[in-house]
Design a protein that fits this description.
Layout (H helix, E strand, L loop, with lengths): L2 H9 L2 E4 L3 E6 L15 H12 L9 E2 L8 E7 L4 H10 L4 E8 L7 E11 L4 E5 L7 E12 L4 E7 L6 H8 L23 E9 L6 E5 L6 H6 L1
Parallel strand pairs: 4-10
Antiparallel strand pairs: 1-2, 2-4, 3-4, 5-9, 5-10, 6-7, 6-8, 8-9, 10-11
Length: about 230
Amino acid sequence: MSKKTLSSIANLQVIYEDNHLIAINKRPGDIVQGDKTGDTPLSDVVKQYIKEKYSKPGNVYLGVVHRLDRPTSGIVIFAKTSKALPRLNKLFAEKEAKKTYWAVVKNKPNKNSDNLTHWLKRNTKQNKSYAYKKEVPESKKAILEYQVIKKLDNYFLLEINLKTGRHHQIRSQLSSIGCSIKGDLKYGFDRSNKDASIHLHARKLAFIHPVKKEPIAIIAPLPKDPIWDACD
């Protein structure tokens, strides 16, 4: 095992775990699943954590249920059993998992709370989604609701509830109303964060446990930096 993987396991922030599920508070910069960069994905780190914690021989089962953008932080949930994975996939596909995000923006929206509906068209070459007010070819409907929950010294904290799960949905929709997320150069913010993160955090995930059938609500602590510290 590489020193980098050992370090990743040491820094892994497990915020919920039972026999069927494990939820991680993802750090900005971590990738959830392997990609062309060749960087160690969070899924591999979690597998190694489970292997070591429970002294498991052979391969460890871990199902990827959903993803977060690389510069984003917050809750990522994995299935630890083959029984839980299809049930979790169904929960997410049928929008029965309630996702709440926090975003820090420079510009205050015109309304303190609102529902935003756009049609998003993904450009795979640019890895970017463009928001349109009306349906265009190859676009998908995107809906979210937001509210301003705190005024910071130079920024505003928004709480966002996703109604659909589209590629870069929050980033694209907020940008389209002139409220780019802090650090998000791709979607119009004027400068990047030093660590290449953006101030978008998957704060809360609420759902009915796929096996135990009990309500679960997981909250992810905020990353440590002066602006996030001011949001707590």
